[in-house]
Amino acid sequence: MTAMSRPDDRALRHLPTLEAQKAALETCTFCPKLCRSACPVSNAEPRESLTPWGKMSLAYGAATGSVARTEDVAQTAWACTGCFGCREHCDHRNEVGPTLLDARDAYRAADLTPPAARGVLAGFDAHARDTVARAGIVADRAGAKVAAGAKTAVLVGCAYLSRAQDEATHAVLAAAELEGAPVSVVDACCGLPLLHAGDKARFLAQAALLDDATKGAERVVVVDPGCAVALRVYARAGGVTTRASVELLVELAAAELVRLSRVSFAEGPVRYHDPCQLGRGLGVYEAPRAVLTRALGRAPDEFFRKREDARCSGAGGLLPVTMPEVASATTRRRIDDHVERGGGTIVTACASSLSRFRGEGAEAIDLSTVLARALGAV
Fold first, then answer.
1. Residues 86-140: tens digit of each pLDDT
2. How far is CA 308 from the centre of its chain?
3. Which of 29-33, 223-227, 311-315, 361-365 has the lowest mean pLDDT?
4. CA distance 32 to 311
5. What are 364's strand-pairing partners?
6. Which three-class secondary structure state does DSSP give residue 347?
7. Whole-number Å distance between alpha carbons of 318 and 160
8. CA–CA separation, 194 and 235 (whole Å)
9. Cα–Cα distance between 227 and 268 in angstroms, integer?
10. Which phi and psi (to 5°) does residue 23 adopt?
């Protein structure tokens, strides 16, 4: 009798660009779903198709042809914030988030991109032009602390430039203070919206533009952790990144704690929120806590779930654009946790999370502002 071929021996002929992710897709497809409680999306909207297993299984099925390639199936790939939470609860450390980004690209190639993500792709050129203009505004606000051609360039990030210009300015001022010299402000987008919307080729093309925008700099200081993760994706793809060394602002500050002074806060707890990209994405947990401890004169308060087990704010992966109600529910869950533990002020190091927390009525401050105050820069 002829042996039946294993399901995972089938070629992914219907979404061929996912062949490189075949092992990751199979690992989830044939798994007992132990990570399901870690997904902020399926926790906010409890549907089996929105669990990490469901999203990966549907992508695998669509690629092999066992599941019809429909808009509803494709939509599930965008039901992910890219928070890496499921990876932390997976015995195999399976990279679900990056695989679903590739699935988005494959679905786009099959003309199955959700309307909201299509809008992001269509509007990216205007977004890139706005980034240049907003970088100029922040540079003007920072005054003498910014100089064209400076040895250190600051990549603030589009989310800061568009939604948190005060915090963007604080980050630039803090970087200049730490460097002891004027800095320049990078006026190019890292292209992360393109990757999240499902156009990996255009995203990788942004690497050359970002490299050009940092030409002449000896060091690039990155503020938004999402931008730092984007640079890592460039590197893994073998593309151009930047000619300069790249460092995170928060890690530079943690190396200069002796220069930080105490900062006054409103009454009540000051609770640190681990941004997904900074924590699970980049593995940076101690540096922001060290900066906050120095500025507060004590260790910051914590969420019930923290560090590797921290819960997502609902801000990432285009979720606020593609599934706004789910994103809001996810943010509110995080705020409820904050309130149950005594409320007070949330400190984060992510412009998107900052915007989500404030939008849902929480008292929130960015670590860049704390740092700038502790350095006497504002």
1. 888 888 888 898 999 999 999 999 999 999 999 999 999 999 999 999 999 999 9
2. 15
3. 29-33
4. 22
5. 346
6. strand
7. 16
8. 17
9. 32
10. -60, -40
How open is the CA angle 243-127-102, to the nearest 5 degrees? 70
Nearest to 77 by CA among 67, 89, 91, 92: 67
Q: Using DSSP, state whether 270 is helix, strand or coil.
A: strand
Give residues with Cβ within 8 angstroms of 297, minimum separation 6: 262
Is pLDDT at 236 greater than 70 in this prediction? yes
User: Please, which residues bridge with residue 245 across strands?
Assistant: 219
Question: Which domains are present in the chain?
Answer: 9-113 (1.10.1060.10), 121-254 (3.40.50), 257-374 (3.40.50)
Q: Which two tokens stand for residue 359?
A: 């939008």
Q: Where are the alpha helices (DSSP H) in the chain?
A: 22-29, 40-44, 52-64, 71-75, 85-88, 96-109, 115-122, 124-142, 158-163, 165-179, 192-197, 200-213, 225-236, 249-254, 286-296, 319-322, 324-340, 351-359, 367-374
Rg, C-alpha atoms of the chain: 21
Residues with Cβ < 8 Å from 133, sequence gap 6 or more? none
Tell me how far CA of residue 315 lies from CA of 232, 261, 281, 311, 329, in angstroms. Answer: 20, 31, 14, 11, 11
Report residue 61 as tokens.
């099925």
One-letter amino acid for residue 355 of the chain: S
Gap between the Cα atoms of 245 and 276, Å rounded: 23
Residue 152, amino acid: T
Q: Give dist(CA 324, CA 75) in Å, integer.
A: 13
pTM of the predicted model as reported, rounded to 2 decimal places: 0.86
Residue 27 token pair: 């690992």
Contact 233, 168 (CB under 8 A): no
- Indicate whether 35 pLDDT > 70: no
255 CA to centre of own chain: 23
Q: How far is C-alpha 35 from the geometric centre of its chain's CA atoms?
A: 20
Q: How far, in Å, are 105, 154, 372 from residue 24 at the CA level?
A: 16, 35, 42
Provide CB contacts within 8 A for 18, sequence distance 6+.
12, 25, 59, 63, 102, 103, 106
